[in-house]
Design brief:
The strands form 7 sheets. A 10-stranded mixed sheet has the order 13-11-9-6-14-5-15-19-23-24, with helices on both faces. Strands 18, 20, 21 and 22 form a 4-stranded mixed sheet that branches. Strands 1-2 form a two-stranded antiparallel ribbon. It is built from 14 helices and 24 strands. The two termini are 25 Å apart. α3 packs across α4. It has 481 residues and is α/β, with parallel strands linked by helices. The protein binds inosinic acid.
Length: 481
């Protein structure tokens, strides 16, 4: 056994003899014996486009090497399907690693619908899996009135085309209350007097908003006493099951004791509240910086790890707003074919997704905002056998060439994509490709992938060629870097 001190993490811990070779040793600037793990300890998975890039497959693949999988933003607007031992699990909140005996953490940057969370946990228990899930006491709770207000506001905005096409899960209204300092946090549910005080302040405001501004009749979702009874009860369950944590400390201690953490981003960079196509965005930060603010682990620590951008080899979009490379009008049959083949229907809402060609300025923007150390490109099989494959390589705007997205969505809407055409690749046995590796990919598909990696000046870590875990060609496991 060795005592060590980590300069990045600032804690001391004990390393077993078996793990000793995974560390380098040196004296830190105070003269203490210090050690740093050689292998990467954190991997952050980020969506590079508009969400639905197939992040779940990589979380599933690399989560095998992690001890902890932590979400850092969003809520049950995300949806992922995990297949384990032939069984399919559809999850929105329980981090997928929890199916594989990993600790799942919902960080403080998440907004949590506790009904959804307990439904998922109870369903998993009925199926013989007891997931270990911890929730940050600083995370905000999606209350029933948030869901009602989400729907009302989307309706109100639809007259002026400003509706974002939300998932209706109350995400925006919950983050709104967080920023307005009137939210209910998970920790508040553990203390009856705080919970009552918070509800007595906020619920009458929400009721007045619904009744007086939006002119609707409200029910139990806006009743302070009903909400108090329900959420005090939920607080009891959270306490009995020891589910809440000080997430930053919990995760920091995990890193300090040599555990690997996978930070699982939901949604994608172009629907980030700060870096996305505002106002057609979600209300959180899916970008890599969100992994720090949304968990309480410092950016320097996250930055010592890997940040992997997940890319779909074309675009899909469930929400509203512009989409310069969208396949519309005469290209609609092509969009239909890609939609069918790629099963492009929303996991949470079932809505058919809009389809477009890969948008390289969007990806360059994502690379800058996230600082990817590597990328994974999914759905290469879906583009097989198309007559031609196009990529929006740059935009033309006001007679000038633009290589990345303008800052406003209105200007983005004025961008004309300048396309590059790629030679098509044949349909092959993708499961064989999954087994045989990169060299067995059709050469035109390799050229397409290498173009993407070169434009983003980064390395290809993995290629998705089908829906199953075995259908991923892995070139680099970021935990081994
Ligand atoms: P919200 O997150 O439900 O508020 O929705 C805001 C916008 O983000 C809408 O355009 C949604 O369609 C989009 N969105 C939210 N979650 C996802 C996701 O998991 N995948 C893709 N789009 C999403």
């Amino acid at each position: 056994m060795f005592r060590w001190h980590s300069p990045g993490i600032g804690v001391s811990a004990t390393i077993s003899d078996a793990d000793i070779e995974s560390y380098v040793w040196f004296k830190d600037r105070n003269g203490f014996e210090a050690a740093q793990r050689i292998a990467c300890m954190s991997v952050t998975i980020v969506g590079s486009q508009l969400g639905d890039e197939g992040k779940g497959a990589l979380v599933d693949l690399w989560g095998g090497e992690a001890d902890v999988v932590s979400r850092y933003q969003g809520g049950d607007n995300a949806g992922h399907t995990v297949v384990e031992n032939g069984e399919e699990y559809k999850l929105s909140l329980v981090p997928s690693g929890a199916i594989r005996n990993k600790i799942g953490v919902l960080g403080n940057g998440c907004v949590v619908n506790l009904d959804t969370l307990f439904d998922e946990i109870d369903t998993l228990r009925d199926r013989g899996i007891d997931p270990e899930v911890r929730i940050a006491r600083r995370a905000h709770v999606i209350m029933p009135y948030h869901r009602v207000l989400d729907g009302i506001e989307e309706d109100a905005k639809s007259d002026s085309d400003l509706d974002a096409g939300t998932t209706g899960r109350g995400i925006g209204p919950t983050y709104e209350d967080k920023a307005g300092r009137r939210g209910i946090r998970v920790g508040d549910l553990l203390d009856r007097s705080t919970l009552r005080e918070r509800l007595e302040y906020v619920v009458p405001q929400k009721r007045a908003l619904a009744e007086k501004v939006f002119d609707i009749d409200v029910g139990a979702q806006f009743d302070t006493d009903v909400l108090f009874d329900k959420y005090a009860g939920i607080g009891e369950r959270l306490r009995e099951e020891s589910m809440t944590v000080n997430a930053g400390k919990f995760l920091n201690d995990c890193l300090g004791s040599g555990k690997n953490i996978l930070f699982e981003g939901a949604q994608g960079t172009s629907i980030d509240i700060d870096h996305g196509i505002y106002p057609y965005v979600t209300s959180s930060n899916p970008t890599a910086g969100g992994a720090a603010t949304g968990t309480g682990i410092g950016p320097t620590v996250i930055g010592q790890g890997e940040v992997v951008g997940i890319i779909k080899s074309y675009l899909s979009r469930v929400g509203t707003g512009p989409l310069p490379t969208e396949l519309i009008d005469q290209d609609e049959p092509l969009a239909d074919a890609i939609r069918e083949r790629g099963s492009e229907f929303g996991t949470v809402t079932g809505r058919p997704r809009r389809i477009g060609w890969l948008d390289m300025p969007m990806l360059r923007h994502a690379q800058r905002a996230n600082g990817f150390t590597g990328i994974a490109v999914n759905h290469i099989d879906v583009l097989a056998e198309l007559e031609t494959i196009k990529v929006g390589h740059s935009y033309e705007l006001d007679g000038e060439t633009r290589m990345t997205m303008p800052a406003t969505t209105e200007r983005w809407n004025e961008c004309e994509p300048v396309y590059r055409t790629f030679d098509p690749w044949p349909d092959v046995s993708w499961s064989d490709v999954g087994e045989a590796g990169y060299s067995s990919l059709p050469s035109n598909a390799q050229a397409y992938l290498e173009y993407i990696a070169a434009e983003l000046d980064t390395s290809l870590y993995a290629i998705g060629v089908g829906p199953d875990r075995a259908d991923t060609v892995e070139l680099t496991n970021p935990f081994d870097r």
